[in-house]
Amino acid sequence: MLHSGDTYGETTQISMEVAAKKMAAKKVSEMLSNPSQMAKVEDMKIFTKMQFTQAENSVKTMMSSLLEETKLAYSLIDESQRNIDTIQNSMIPPTDHLVIREVDLIRRNLSGVLMEIGRFIKIPDMIQRIETMMERDINILSVHGEVRMLEKMRDSSMKSAAMDPEELAILIRIFDPVQNLLRTFDEKLMKIFASAISLVQKSPAVIVKAVQVVEREQMLDDQVRSHLLKKKKDPEDPSNRDEFRFYREKAYQAISQSVQEHFQETFGDNSADAFTDLSQKLLDELPVVLDELIFCFPKSWKIFEYYCKEYHKNFITTILNYSIQPEKITPNDIIEIIGWAGNGYQAQMEGLGYDPQPPLQQACEPLYGTYRDHIRALMTEWAKRFVEQDIEKEPEIVDGLVVTLAPTLLFESVDVQIKIARDTNDSAFFFGTMVETANALEVFQSEVLQRLRDNWQDLPLEWIMAQINNAFKCCDKIDQMVSTLAPLLEEPYDSQIAPLYEPIGEKFTTVSKESLSVLADVIWKDLEAPLDQIFDLDWYDNKDFINPIIATIGSYFGDIDTYIVENYFRRLCMECLDRLTQTYIRNIFEKSHTLDSNTAERLITDEEKIRTFFTQHIKDTIVNPKLQILADLRELIDAEADMLPLYFHSIVKNYPDVTTHIIAALLSMRKDLSKSEMKSAVEGCEKVMEKEGTREMKKTIFSTHCKITSLVNTNRTITVYLALAVKMQTVDTEDHYKDCKSFERNKHQ
Q1: GO CC terms on record (predicted)?
Q2: Given pLDDT bands bounded at 50, 70 and 90, which one contains residue 655?
Q3: Which CATH class is domain 366-522?
């Protein structure tokens, strides 16, 4: 009986437990049907445990009372044992299966919730562990995996709780450190790329792992790109930009930023005089990229080309910064920078296999102006100083010619500047420097010409002579420069050398001619008094009047001959002969006198002495044509009236600028011609002019010298008046000529 009662009690207890479990399962199922209740699982566990304890105590009490009742009703239980056994054997109804499934689902849900809660609780520990790992660069790849796992957990949880604002807010607080961790990781990764050149020499494995991180992210970006293309969306659309991580682009940006900061730190507070040394140190870093760093990157990165491009870009920026701050750079610094850019830099970059474009020399072009301004001011100052000092020093005799040192010093300075510019291997800069040297030569020429024209009376004769020789040698120097410099320049500058320097050479020829003219002025200044007396009474009375004049000229020639260039000495002789001839012509028209056979005889005497003197220095083939005008005028003074047109025709051939006004003025001073003869002679000359027709008006002594032209213009009024008088035959020619001269003087007064 006791055994049967125990069996009944146990059976009843089992049934109650089953019922309790069903109730508990149902209640838990109801409580956990809402995902928002998952955060309260811990409280539910405690509450459920308390209920379970209470239920257990209640069941025990109930079972004790029932056991007592079963003892009393043992007989009933024994009788119904068979029925109970039958019922127990058939205790698997469909409802029990549903309960089991629900309980299993709840169990699994609880297990998942507990697992999620456990993971959430571990997030701070995971973050701390990852931060510890990040302290060593070598762990960057492992850290990347851990960080991305946290990121996925965050994104998944956020997506699940998207519909529950309360739960979403809790998750945001939980995962807030993850965002900071991601930011720290990105900064760490970019720092590795920024310090790649120094890091590759210590720990290249770190760079390799960093590149692997970027490549993984690049694969994800490629997948996103393909996904967008399948959806027929534009990957380049800004609205789709958030889909990509752009880690490779960020790595390039980190490298670019680090190179820029490296250049700024290197050149920031340093003056331009250290540019080449500092630049060379920077340039020496590129072989490290080529020999070591390049093997840490895939070929698709083209990392060496990228570093070269960034270094080249920052070299350009640095040089341009100097051009906008000219006070921080000296001309010597500019020369060093341009020379390094054209020689050292270009050669080294090409040696590394990289062609820098645009050439670094183009960045130097703004510095050209600064340097040219300096050279212009410097060379101008030197040119003026050389001329000032040159006058104060005694000329020297070199190779038999009197010279001064000013041109030598000037061309030495020019050669130095040209050599400095040539060594830069920059044709544009080289040509610009030559332009400034040409300007300096022009300044020198202008200074010399100004002193010759303004102060020639105070200048030593030797200094004037030296300018002829100096300028002559300068012309040779200019020709030499043109022939030697043109091959050193590239196109198009090589073809611009001759147009640049040839005008300089022509102006040096002008300096020689001006010096020669001034030399003649010096001689003529000493002869001013005796020359002014030609055709005066003293000249008529003294047949040796010309001798002192010739002697003075000869004395000067003795001091000058062999000390100036031979060609210019001959030109000086011709200049003096021309001036002497012009003096005779001018005085014929200027002096108030009559012309007769005595005048012609005196002219013959002077003409022969002049010819004898000048043929000692220049060829008679040069002297005779220049004296021919005196012979022709002498014939007009002494010839018969009917022969005058013939001699006038001879004059016209050699002196096409002569006019009938001049001849009429000359004939009006002859006292042996009658009125009709004079009229006939003038008309004959006019016919000769008509026969000659239009002539090439080559300028001769009658139109090239203002004094003669002025006298001719003055006598034009006289001639017209005389012509009218002759035609009317109402006045005496000689008396009327004197009246006209008086009238002309009064008119000018």
Answers
A1: exocyst
A2: confident
A3: mainly alpha
